[in-house]
């Protein structure tokens, strides 16, 4: 189910447990923490290979597709009932337009799909409702396909991920699930509790760290950028593969907090050239057009590399991915339809559309 790239050496160094770091004072250029001795490794040729996780068992695959279909059922009902015994006329197109808008596909994506569908119906001389539905399926897959992109591992050591999102989007829980997925790809992970404002956020991340046997760099208060910097230095010293930096949840309209995100990004870059390598935004699939506004605002501020869309279970706003694809096509790495670890899976355009139109 997962297709990642990683770089593999002939010998893998042992990774010592990292101590809790004491973050430096709030400065633009925090002082590095004292580095633990690096485990020496012999020089080895670095090769690049495709690593594919063990495929989901047949029953696991069915379970995932059933959960996805159930999660999108409210959106699906609005779309699929239109084609039951329908005539191919203006009334059908009007009803389809309303259904797409209600699903939060957005005006631009909706108009594009309707124009393309009418053209396809005319050029291919489609006369049956099922044929029109199949044509819509093909158009939706074509629209969403550019969002389907695998996460690439092993490009840097460590690979630094900075993860943002508004409060309530499921950001911290998603970080815990993603850490577990990375471990299944033989990646060692270190978490940075960059939300220094809320004790609950640090505690939640600590719980996920304990559950996954992952070190968490945290402090009770202070500069989140310093915590992120310390985490990167700790990971470099211990040859950890991936650093995931949690950040405080905020609304894109809170300009002073958005500026702080930019500062965290800059300070991480001072700790490791070229980092952060992944800038991910976690969005709640239930928030529809508000989620699209978040994507635009955070992308403008941080230049996002990927999205994780959570809480698609039970939403009537599944069309939001079409709006994202048409107006701000940031890759969707993962989608989530539940609370379990296995309920977070890589985004697959064909599976998503089939669940939407089944």
UniProtKB/TrEMBL annotation:
<keyword id="KW-0547">Nucleotide-binding</keyword>
<dbReference type="InterPro" id="IPR003593">
    <property type="entry name" value="AAA+_ATPase"/>
</dbReference>
<comment type="similarity">
    <text>Belongs to the GTP-binding SRP family. FtsY subfamily.</text>
</comment>
<dbReference type="InterPro" id="IPR036225">
    <property type="entry name" value="SRP/SRP_N"/>
</dbReference>
<keyword id="KW-0342">GTP-binding</keyword>
<protein>
    <recommendedName>
        <fullName>Signal recognition particle receptor FtsY</fullName>
        <ecNumber>3.6.5.4</ecNumber>
    </recommendedName>
</protein>
<keyword id="KW-0963">Cytoplasm</keyword>
<feature type="binding site">
    <location>
        <begin position="310"/>
        <end position="313"/>
    </location>
    <ligand>
        <name>GTP</name>
    </ligand>
</feature>
<dbReference type="Pfam" id="PF02881">
    <property type="entry name" value="SRP54_N"/>
</dbReference>
<keyword id="KW-0675">Receptor</keyword>
<keyword id="KW-0131">Cell cycle</keyword>
<dbReference type="GO" id="GO:0005047">
    <property type="term" value="F:signal recognition particle binding"/>
</dbReference>
<comment type="function">
    <text>Involved in targeting and insertion of nascent membrane proteins into the cytoplasmic membrane. Acts as a receptor for the complex formed by the signal recognition particle (SRP) and the ribosome-nascent chain (RNC). Interaction with SRP-RNC leads to the transfer of the RNC complex to the Sec translocase for insertion into the membrane, the hydrolysis of GTP by both Ffh and FtsY, and the dissociation of the SRP-FtsY complex into the individual components.</text>
</comment>
<dbReference type="InterPro" id="IPR004390">
    <property type="entry name" value="SR_rcpt_FtsY"/>
</dbReference>
<dbReference type="GO" id="GO:0006614">
    <property type="term" value="P:SRP-dependent cotranslational protein targeting to membrane"/>
</dbReference>
<feature type="binding site">
    <location>
        <begin position="246"/>
        <end position="250"/>
    </location>
    <ligand>
        <name>GTP</name>
    </ligand>
</feature>
<dbReference type="InterPro" id="IPR042101">
    <property type="entry name" value="SRP54_N_sf"/>
</dbReference>
<keyword id="KW-0378">Hydrolase</keyword>
<dbReference type="GO" id="GO:0005525">
    <property type="term" value="F:GTP binding"/>
</dbReference>
<dbReference type="InterPro" id="IPR000897">
    <property type="entry name" value="SRP54_GTPase_dom"/>
</dbReference>
<dbReference type="GO" id="GO:0003924">
    <property type="term" value="F:GTPase activity"/>
</dbReference>
<dbReference type="Pfam" id="PF00448">
    <property type="entry name" value="SRP54"/>
</dbReference>
<dbReference type="InterPro" id="IPR027417">
    <property type="entry name" value="P-loop_NTPase"/>
</dbReference>
<keyword id="KW-1003">Cell membrane</keyword>
<feature type="domain" description="SRP54-type proteins GTP-binding">
    <location>
        <begin position="331"/>
        <end position="344"/>
    </location>
</feature>
<dbReference type="InterPro" id="IPR013822">
    <property type="entry name" value="Signal_recog_particl_SRP54_hlx"/>
</dbReference>
<dbReference type="GO" id="GO:0005886">
    <property type="term" value="C:plasma membrane"/>
</dbReference>
<keyword id="KW-0472">Membrane</keyword>
<comment type="subunit">
    <text>Part of the signal recognition particle protein translocation system, which is composed of SRP and FtsY. SRP is a ribonucleoprotein composed of Ffh and a 4.5S RNA molecule.</text>
</comment>
<dbReference type="GO" id="GO:0005737">
    <property type="term" value="C:cytoplasm"/>
</dbReference>
<feature type="binding site">
    <location>
        <begin position="165"/>
        <end position="172"/>
    </location>
    <ligand>
        <name>GTP</name>
    </ligand>
</feature>
<dbReference type="GO" id="GO:0051301">
    <property type="term" value="P:cell division"/>
</dbReference>
<keyword id="KW-0132">Cell division</keyword>
